[in-house]
Amino acid sequence: MSASGPATDGILAPAKINLNLKIVGRREDGYHLLDSMVVFTAFGDRILVQPSPQDSITIDGPFGGMLNEPPSENICAKALTMFRLAGGRIGPLAIHIRKDIPVGAGLGGGSSNAAALLRWLQENADGAVPDVSLSEIALSLGADVPACLAGRALQMTGIGETITLMSTAPHGRILLASPRVFMPTKTIFTALAQSDFAIGEGANAVSQSSAGSVAELVARGNDLQPVAIEQAPIIGDLVQQIETQTGCVAAQMTGSGSACFGIFETAEQSDAAAALLAGQGFWTVSTRF
């Protein structure tokens, strides 16, 4: 994959943050049922789209080299193909992805890329698809894609397909940090599958309330964090380091890891923590949600 030139449109594919993540059961097909409060940041990947004689996918950015699949296997290529198969009409496109979100970090980079492209296609195609078809495409691409397609503060339940927008969106300053450990989602859920969830349990679980401060939402925990720490103890060390930074009101791992986050009182405190942890070799970004 190689870089392309400037494009006519630039789309933000924001990083996804699970403020909390509760595993409430497991379906008969093995998929885990979850309940999670999700927000999106002002930081993310950039997707550039322009008309072209033929379809192409190109990737660069600090984490572009970690995507080793052929262009035809990229999730954005799949999204474009499925959009057309669902009846969407759009000519050949050159799609360029700048990967600023770490890969395998639980920040939803690939899912957000696909969702951002689907939104762009729906708005710019010669013929759009029904909204229900767009939602079906999103879920078929991955459990996080429906949430990323919504792109707003929300609660996701089921396997991720049931979306409820928060009436009052949490907001504030956030530090993102990664120990630079690639953590495949499948690895974490495979380890979790050995837990004591009964087959079919959780189908009728009562959803958590979206009420509460950001710190209170985070305090509900991420059930995947202990599993990820068993795989990579440095994740636990990073969470503890974030918690000790001046102005940090809550810290936790996001998604299936390995990235972690800290909620801060001010931008200056978040920036200072990012600089300190970057000096220790961690990947960091100070941003807002």
Written description of the protein model:
With 289 residues, the protein is of the alpha+beta class. It has two domains: 9-165, Ribosomal Protein S5, domain 2 (2-Layer Sandwich); 173-288, 2-Layer Sandwich (Alpha-Beta Plaits), CATH 3.30.70.890. The protein has nine helices and ten strands. It has helices at residues 75-85, 109-124, 131-141, 145-150, 185-192, 214-219, 225-231, 234-243, 267-279, and strands at 9-26, 32-51, 56-60, 93-98, 154-158, 162-165, 173-178, 248-253, 260-264, 283-288. Strands 1, 2, 3, 4, 5 and 6 form a six-stranded mixed beta sheet that branches. The longest helix has 16 residues, at 109-124.
In total, the number of domains comes to: 2
Mean pLDDT: 92
Class based on secondary structure composition and strand pairing: alpha+beta
Sheet-strand content, in percent, reads: 25-35%
Class of the largest domain in CATH? Alpha Beta
- How many distinct helices? 9
Number of strands: 10
Give me the secondary-structure topology.
Elements lengths: L8 E18 L5 E20 L4 E5 L14 H11 L7 E6 L10 H16 L6 H11 L3 H6 L3 E5 L3 E4 L7 E6 L6 H8 L21 H6 L5 H7 L2 H10 L4 E6 L6 E5 L2 H13 L3 E6 L1
Features:
Ribosomal Protein S5, domain 2, 10 strands, 289 residues, alpha+beta, 2 domains, six-stranded mixed beta sheet, single chain, four-stranded antiparallel beta sheet, Alpha-Beta Plaits
Compact summary:
By secondary structure, the protein is α+β, with helices and mostly antiparallel strands. The protein has helices at 75-85, 109-124, 131-141, 145-150, 185-192, 214-219, 225-231, 234-243, 267-279; strands at 9-26, 32-51, 56-60, 93-98, 154-158, 162-165, 173-178, 248-253, 260-264, 283-288.
